[in-house]
C-alpha cells in the first residue's frame, strides 16, 4: 500500500516538473493549519518528512501574514508559531496583515510563477487552488503526508496549452498574410517591369517583412550550396617545377653524396664462384 502511494506521489511530481517547470529543491509554502498538524502528529523533522513525500530535497516557506495569524490565535498555537518562525519567509508585500488564505492566494497569483507546493489542512483552500494551473497541494492525514493528484482542470490546461503551441498565433497569421501579399506584388511587379514607382503601401509592407525576417531570421527561398572543387583539377596539371632554392639544395646534397659515396652492403654474403666468373668471361 505504501509503495503504491509513493508511486502516485512520484507520478504527480513528474507531472508538475514536466509540465510546469518545478525543480529541486522543491519549495513548500505552509499555512498555520499545516504547521500545527505537523506538530500535533509529531511529523518531525518536517523537511525530511516532506522530502520523503515528494522524492527530493525541499525548502519550507511561510509568510509574514501566516505568522501574524498564528500569533493572533493565542497560547494554544504558541508552539506552532515558534516552529513557523524557523521557516523561510516568502515575500508577500502586504504592509497590513491579511488573512493567511488571502495572503497565500496572492503569493500564488494567477499561475504560481514561483513554483510553490501549497501545504494546508484547509480543504476549501485546496479546492480553490485546484482551479489554478500548476499548484500542487499537500495535506496531512493523521501521521502521513499526501500529495494530491493533479486536478482535471490542470490536466485540461496542459492539454490546451500544448494544442495552442502547435497552432499559429494571430500575429504569425497576420505576418503570413502580409508576406503572401508581398510575394504576389513582387511577381506582378516583375512582369510589368515597374521598378521605379513604388508606392508607400508597398514600402510599409516591405518594412514589415524585413523586420519580420530580421526577427525570425527567415529566408525567402531555399538556398542550395553546391560543393565545388577549389582550384584546377590536379590530374590535368603538370607537376610544379621545383624552384631554384630547392635545386641548389639538391645539388649540394648530390655533391655531398658524391664526395662521400655510401658504402654498399649486402644483406647476404656474396660468394663469387668459379662458374660465374667463367660465365662472365
Ligand atoms: Zn501577506
Structural key phrases:
Rossmann fold, alpha/beta, binds zinc ion, 281 residues, six-stranded mixed beta sheet
Break the fold down into its secondary structure elements and pairings.
Layout lengths: L1 H19 L5 E5 L1 H9 L5 H9 L3 E5 L1 H9 L5 H8 L2 E2 L10 H9 L7 E4 L3 H7 L7 E5 L2 E4 L4 H15 L3 H23 L7 H17 L27 H16 L14 H7 L1
Parallel strand pairs: 1-2, 1-4, 2-3, 4-5
Antiparallel strand pairs: 5-6
Helix pairs in contact: 2-5, 9-10
Bound molecules: zinc ion (ZN).
Organism: Coffea arabica (Arabian coffee)
Family: Belongs to the UTP23/FCF1 family. UTP23 subfamily.
Protein name: rRNA-processing protein utp23-like isoform X2
Q: Stretches where pLDDT falls below 50 for ≥5 residues?
A: 249-258
Q: What molecules are bound to this protein?
A: zinc ion
Number of helices: 12
Radius of gyration (CA) equals 41 Å
* Content of β-strand: 5-15%
**Overall tally of domains:** 2
Structural class: alpha/beta
Protein name: rRNA-processing protein utp23-like isoform X2
GO biological process, one term: rRNA processing
Subcellular location: Nucleus, Nucleolus
Keywords: Nucleus, Ribosome biogenesis, rRNA processing
Describe what this molecule looks like in 3D.
With 281 residues, the protein is α/β, with parallel strands linked by helices. Helix content is 53%, strand content 9%. It folds into 2 domains: 2-159, Rossmann fold (3-Layer(aba) Sandwich), CATH 3.40.50.1010; 168-216. The chain contains 12 helices and 6 strands. Strands 3-2-1-4-5-6 form a 6-stranded mixed sheet. A hairpin with a 2-residue loop joins strand 5 and strand 6 (144-147). The structure holds zinc ion. Residues 63-65, 92, 94, 98, 103 line the site of zinc ion. It is found in: Nucleus, Nucleolus.
Amino acid at each position: 500500500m505504501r509503495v503504491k502511494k509513493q508511486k502516485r506521489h512520484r507520478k504527480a511530481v513528474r507531472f508538475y516538473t514536466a509540465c510546469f517547470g518545478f525543480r529541486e529543491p522543491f519549495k513548500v509554502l505552509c499555512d498555520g493549519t499545516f504547521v500545527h498538524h505537523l506538530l500535533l502528529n509529531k511529523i518531525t523533522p518536517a523537511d525530511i518528512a516532506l522530502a520523503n513525500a515528494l522524492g527530493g530535497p525541499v525548502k519550507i516557506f511561510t509568510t509574514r501574514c501566516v505568522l501574524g495569524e498564528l500569533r493572533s490565535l493565542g497560547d494554544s498555537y504558541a508552539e506552532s508559531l515558534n516552529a513557523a518562525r524557523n521557516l523561510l519567509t516568502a515575500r508577500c508585500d502586504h504592509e497590513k496583515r491579511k488573512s493567511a488564505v488571502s495572503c497565500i492566494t496572492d503569493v500564488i497569483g494567477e499561475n504560481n510563477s514561483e513554483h510553490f507546493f501549497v501545504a494546508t489542512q484547509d480543504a476549501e483552500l485546496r479546492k480553490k487552488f485546484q482551479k489554478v494551473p500548476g499548484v500542487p497541494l499537500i495535506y496531512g492525514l493523521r501521521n502521513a503526508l499526501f500529495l494530491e493528484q493533479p486536478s482535471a482542470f490542470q490536466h485540461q490546461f496542459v492539454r490546451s496549452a500544448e494544442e495552442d503551441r502547435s497552432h499559429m498565433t494571430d500575429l504569425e497569421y497576420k505576418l503570413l498574410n502580409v508576406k503572401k501579399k508581398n510575394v504576389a506584388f513582387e511577381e506582378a511587379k516583375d512582369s510589368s517591369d515597374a521598378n521605379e514607382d513604388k508606392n508607400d503601401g508597398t514600402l510599409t509592407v516591405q518594412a514589415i517583412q524585413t523586420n519580420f525576417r530580421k526577427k525570425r531570421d527567415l529566408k525567402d527561398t531555399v538556398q542550395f550550396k553546391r560543393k565545388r572543387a577549389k582550384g584546377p583539377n590536379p590530374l590535368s596539371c603538370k607537376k610544379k617545377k621545383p624552384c631554384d632554392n630547392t635545386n641548389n639544395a639538391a645539388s649540394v646534397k648530390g655533391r655531398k653524396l658524391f664526395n662521400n659515396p655510401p658504402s654498399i652492403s649486402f644483406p647476404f654474403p656474396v660468394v663469387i664462384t668459379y662458374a660465374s666468373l667463367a660465365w662472365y668471361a
